[in-house]
Write a sequence for this structure.
């Protein structure tokens, strides 16, 4: 058996209580030659065995495939996508995924995974310090069906994730241009004035598809709008007069803000420079840089 | 701690505890039931957000009060009876403790323990049925709390999942029950019956003790007449304890019970004895409620445990009481009875049997001397005394309360009572006249069950009568004053008499045949028929449970050709059945979905190719999977395509495929796989 398929099992304290109860029941049967007590204890024993077996099979052929991360803010709660694959012919019920490394806690509570399928769910992450981190050893565990046994399976994913500084700070955004001055045109997905159609690509939001056009028989198109952008923002760590960690936090806040406002922004971390841009990929790049620096 | 927020789940827990209290309801005293009831009501109100759960000082007070109540009731907080009462209170208190997962689990386990205590006390059919129902609900709830997000109360689902689990557990339960080695002797290490089991039958006489019993419809014991003539109901006197100490006119007690070493030295293993000529041989099936006393037709001369258990019997001939050891849920005894027993009295015993209370009022003494006038023997005196009872005395189950001098008040003023009053006062009067006398308590009556032919004696048949020593005949003579006060009580038997007592006392009809006719009418009612049937079934089951022991085990294995089976061998068989059960579970319990042959075949293909580092992606169907396989092994592409096409047809066409076709596919794949290596 491969190590990652190994399922570990120990009785819970209720399991121990139950086992002791069963033993007492057998003892009473012996001492008082009481056949009904024997029957009861053999029933308890059978349930114990069924519980043990079912606990074990509840995690068998279950594999933690991967976790998809977006950069996560430090000292906060966030979720990531978790992929769990079942090759078992039986379903899995009440499975938990959890970990506890030094700073970050992972926890996912899955009610059911159907047989021979891929379960895509959420895993809650409670983050600590910022940084580039590897996913800790994750434990997939369960107490199903009777809570008498605790079964678990360990997974080590070779995945890294980024925890960027917690967005905090009260400094005003450093603007290069006067507010209201139009610098360059930025094509966005929502805004004041329709500009053009763009071909639908996988991953684009369904909300932006021009369904009216689609209904008219054209292929899926995405509407793009023209918006007056407020200009390029240069975010530079050297221009912030705060301790390093606090300035990083301020920068995180600005990055998120600029992204939300559809500004073009660049990030300068003295060692590291990201040119002006916007969009999801750009934001990710900036946040990763903030996490790692 | 995870809170169990679901009201319906908590209510099902409350319901579970409530039904587990039911079998105890008649056995436990008011405080236990009050605490239980109060906690249940409190919890239900809490669930509907009418009240809060108590804070810890209040809980502490509750615990102390409960312990005190148990201690005051039983004189200890250990032992079976006291322990059970304690556990019942504990589980009730747990209800108003907290509302978490942990509490729910603890409650579920405590309920198991409560059930166990119930099982230890009796092994009747009812308890068995109740236990099955109980474990079905407990395991159902245990599963529900661990598997469903939805904890709503769904009785049908609860019962079906519970029943399924029960049936899955049943094979091991039955197998182990048959083969698990039974001990050939009894251990005596655990604290057990503390001898305070309430039987309703009391071995001391204090009028009032039997009045409540007379109304209970419980089966006291059953008897099968093996040899000899079945006596008529009026002659069925089942002897229990003999009372010799007269402490106060109406109060009678047994002689000092032997305890400790003296008691143990008197325990004998009954040796076989051939019944004498006129002996009536009976088999008595006695439940555990009667801890100390054996019952048999008057006068029993010999007892033997049917199962040859050395626990058996203490038999003191002269004083005539029998005692069996406790810790049994059911005992079966053989008894030989003979209406004539030869005994003699020595001087010491004569003193014992003529002992009278120190203070007797002059009015009573006058009555005695008045009655003794003109009589020369004890027989004459007793006959005259019976006549006295015939005039002016009345039978009632609700006698008026007697003043300080109970004997005088009863004999001269109230003149109302039941068998105990009559038997006690009769014997006292005989003693006051100077003759040896004693009181016997036991049962009178009994109905023959038409389904199994056994006699059923119920608590309603409880009775007390007097015995007087006749020097001339050299034997004890039975005098039953109740017979002259309420002759119907004896002719009809306790069960029928008490059922019809209101009619009888109100109608003034004293015609025996009329009432016997009435009795046979009620016997034909379907309810009574059903009662007889159930008593039969219950007896069979209880006998099976109490008789299945090492001897039976040996017999069973003898039948299948294994002679003299040894416990070690039985342990091995138990282990084998345990392992067999494990594998049975593996193949049987987890087939939640039946999958088609072709899916099975496909799965095995995926699995075996995985070993060649070719994993099936979770989002691809068979077609893309085989296309990808073809791309990986271009040389075998045509073969792969063939296989794919066949599989796709089998999987998606309407007619499906049969076993042979699947086997051919498997064969094809096997050949292909060899090439892929």
């Amino acid at each position: 058996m491969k190590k990652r398929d190994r399922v570990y099992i120990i009785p819970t304290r209720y399991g121990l209580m139950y086992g002791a109860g069963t033993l007492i029941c057998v003892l009473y049967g012996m001492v008082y030659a009481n056949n009904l007590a024997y029957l009861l204890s053999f029933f308890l024993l059978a349930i114990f065995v069924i519980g043990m077996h079912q606990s074990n099979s509840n995690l068998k052929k279950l594999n933690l495939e991967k976790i998809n991360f977006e950069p996560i803010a430090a000292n906060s709660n966030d979720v990531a996508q978790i992929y769990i694959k079942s090759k078992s012919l039986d379903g899995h019920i009440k499975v938990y995924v959890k970990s506890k490394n030094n700073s970050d806690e992972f926890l996912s509570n899955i009610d059911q995974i159907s047989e021979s399928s891929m379960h895509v769910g959420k895993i809650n992450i409670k983050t600590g310090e910022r940084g580039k981190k590897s996913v800790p050893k994750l434990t997939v565990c369960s107490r199903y069906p009777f809570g008498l046994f605790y079964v678990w399976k360990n997974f080590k994913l070779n995945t890294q994730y980024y925890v960027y500084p917690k967005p905090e700070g009260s400094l005003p955004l450093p603007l290069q241009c006067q507010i209201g001055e139009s610098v360059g045109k930025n094509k966005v997905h929502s805004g004041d004035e329709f500009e053009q159609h763009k071909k639908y690509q996988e991953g684009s939001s369904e909300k932006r598809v021009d369904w009216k056009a689609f209904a008219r028989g054209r292929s899926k198109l995405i509407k793009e709008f023209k918006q007056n952008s407020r200009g390029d923002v240069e975010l530079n760590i050297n221009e912030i007069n705060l301790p390093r960690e606090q300035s990083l936090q301020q920068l995180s806040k600005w990055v998120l803000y600029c992204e939300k406002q559809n500004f073009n922004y660049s990030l300068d971390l003295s060692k590291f420079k990201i040119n002006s841009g916007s969009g999801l990929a750009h934001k990710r790049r900036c946040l990763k840089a903030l996490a790692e620096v | 701690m995870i809170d169990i927020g679901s009201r319906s789940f908590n209510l099902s827990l409350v319901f579970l505890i409530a039904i587990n209290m039911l079998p105890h309801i008649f056995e436990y005293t008011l405080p236990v039931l009050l605490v239980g009831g109060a906690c249940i009501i409190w919890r239900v109100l809490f669930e509907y957000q009418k009240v809060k759960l108590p804070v810890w000082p209040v809980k502490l007070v509750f615990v102390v009060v409960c312990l005190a109540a148990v201690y005051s009731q039983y004189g200890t907080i250990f032992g079976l009876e006291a322990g059970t009462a304690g556990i019942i209170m504990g589980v009730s208190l747990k209800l108003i403790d907290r509302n978490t997962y942990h509490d729910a689990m603890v409650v579920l386990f405590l309920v198991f323990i409560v059930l166990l205590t119930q099982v230890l006390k009796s092994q009747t059919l009812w308890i068995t049925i109740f236990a099955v129902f109980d474990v079905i609900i407990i395991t159902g709830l245990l599963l529900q709390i661990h598997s469903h997000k939805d904890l709503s109360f769904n009785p049908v689902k609860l019962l079906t999942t519970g029943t399924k689990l029960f049936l899955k557990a049943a094979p091991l339960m039955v197998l182990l029950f048959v083969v698990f080695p039974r001990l050939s002797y009894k251990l005596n290490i655990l604290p057990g019956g503390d001898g305070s089991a309430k039987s309703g039958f009391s071995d001391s006489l204090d009028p009032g003790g039997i009045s409540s019993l007379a109304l209970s419809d419980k089966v006291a014991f059953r008897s099968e007449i093996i040899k000899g003539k079945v006596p008529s109901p009026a002659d069925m006197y089942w002897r229990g304890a003999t009372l010799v100490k007269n402490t106060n006119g109406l109060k009678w007690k047994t002689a000092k019970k032997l305890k400790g070493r003296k008691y143990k030295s008197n325990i004998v293993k009954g040796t076989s004895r051939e019944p004498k000529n006129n002996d009536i041989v009976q088999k008595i099936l006695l439940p555990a409620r009667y801890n100390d006393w054996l019952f048999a037709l008057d006068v029993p001369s010999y007892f033997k445990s049917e199962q040859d258990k050395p626990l058996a019997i203490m038999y003191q001939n002269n004083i005539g009481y029998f005692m069996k050891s406790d810790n049994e849920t059911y005992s079966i005894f053989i008894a030989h009875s003979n209406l004539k027993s030869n005994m003699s009295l020595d001087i010491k015993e004569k003193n014992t049997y003529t002992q009278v209370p120190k203070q007797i009022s002059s009015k009573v003494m006058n009555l005695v001397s008045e009655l003794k006038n003109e009589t020369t023997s004890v027989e004459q005196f007793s006959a005259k005394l019976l006549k006295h009872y015939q005039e002016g005395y009345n039978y009632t189950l609700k006698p008026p309360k007697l003043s300080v001098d109970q004997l005088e008040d009863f004999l001269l003023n109230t003149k109302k009572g039941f068998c105990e009053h009559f038997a006690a006062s009769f014997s006292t009067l005989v003693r006051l006249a100077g003759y040896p006398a004693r009181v016997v308590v036991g049962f009178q009556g009994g109905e023959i069950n038409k389904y199994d032919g056994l006699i059923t004696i119920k608590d309603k048949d409880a009775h007390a009568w007097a015995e007087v020593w006749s020097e001339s005949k050299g034997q004890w003579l039975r005098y039953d004053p109740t017979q002259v006060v309420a002759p119907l009580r004896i002719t009809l038997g306790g069960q029928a008499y008490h059922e019809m007592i209101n009619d009888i006392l109100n109608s003034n009809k004293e015609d025996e045949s009329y009432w016997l006719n009435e009795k046979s009418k009620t016997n034909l009612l379907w309810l009574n028929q059903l009662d007889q049937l159930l008593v039969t079934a219950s007896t069979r089951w209880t006998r099976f449970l109490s008789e299945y022991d090492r001897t039976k085990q040996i017999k069973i294995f003898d039948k299948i050709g294994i002679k003299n089976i040894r416990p070690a061998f039985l342990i091995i068989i138990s282990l084998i059945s345990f392992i067999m059960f494990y594998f049975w579970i593996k193949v049987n319990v987890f087939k939640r979905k039946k999958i088609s042959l072709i899916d099975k075949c496909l799965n095995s293909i995926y699995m075996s190719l995985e070993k060649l580092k070719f994993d099936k992606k979770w989002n691809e169907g068979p077609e893309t999977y085989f296309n990808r396989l073809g791309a990986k092994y271009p040389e075998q592409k045509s073969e792969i395509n063939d296989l794919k096409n066949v599989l796709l047809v089998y999987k998606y066409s309407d007619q499906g495929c049969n076993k042979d076709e699947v086997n051919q596919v498997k064969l094809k794949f096997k050949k292909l796989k060899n090439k892929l290596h």
